[in-house]
Write a structure and sequence with these properties.
7-stranded mixed sheet; 8 helices; globular; Aconitase, domain 4; about 210 residues; about 35% helix; about 15% strand
Length: about 210
């Protein structure tokens, strides 16, 4: 997981409420054994024409398929983003597509936790603030937004400024690029010492049998 502090990027506007995890990453992709490659399947049913062979043809009217929004690291949506089942694959898909942050008025609780563990900043702003950003990014796909995690602010060059709340522990993890494994590895020396001591005290070599 990479460390994140300040993100300045164009943003993809997706003005829909209650976007659930089955839309973010449909259930058929949960059977994959890999933990990588999910970005291709993000918003699969919306991105691809399901009536074409192998579903490989992109829907030109869907925002992620529009060239002017390619490379955006911020997604903006409406309330209750990430509702539905608790699949962590939803956070994997967003992150592996390239999104480092999602702005919305509210997020589902389990998705909120999964996103933070997978390197995604979730900035909950008021509905009015979100609508203003959606309008600006829709009118001008090159409109850039800056998210400062340290200051917990969302700003743009047109004078927009808003503050968002984030749990101090999750903020620390995102700032330092620490997922659950990274948090554990901070204590690698102590763990190795404990393991060595434990083996020395409790491990016994098998006794050789006499002929």
């Amino acid at each position: 997981m990479i460390a994140i502090n300040t993100i300045t990027s164009t943003a993809v506007p997706l003005p829909l409420p209650n976007i659930d995890t089955d839309q973010i990453i449909p259930k058929q992709f949960l059977k994959r054994v890999e933990r990588t490659g999910y970005g291709t399947f993000l918003f699969y049913d919306w991105r691809y024409d399901l009536d074409t062979p192998d579903h490989v043809e992109e829907r030109k009217d869907f925002v992620l398929n529009k060239p002017e929004y390619k490379g955006s690291q911020i997604l903006i949506a409406e309330k209750n983003f990430g509702c539905g089942s608790s699949r962590e694959h939803a956070a994997w898909a967003l992150n592996q597509y390239g999104f480092l942050a999602v702005i919305a008025p509210s997020f589902a609780d389990i998705f909120f936790s999964n996103a933070g563990k997978n390197g995604i900043i979730l900035a909950a702003l008021t509905e009015d603030e979100v609508q203003r950003l959606l309008a600006r990014c829709t009118a001008d796909p090159q409109h850039k937004i800056t998210i400062n995690l340290e200051a917990q602010t969302v700003t743009d060059e047109l004078g927009f400024s808003a503050h968002f709340e984030i749990d101090s522990f999750r903020k620390y993890c995102l700032l330092n690029g620490l997922d659950d494994i990274g948090l554990t590895l901070r204590h690698e020396t102590e763990l190795d010492n404990f393991e060595s001591k434990h083996d020395a005290e409790f491990w016994q070599a098998p006794k050789l049998l006499k002929a």
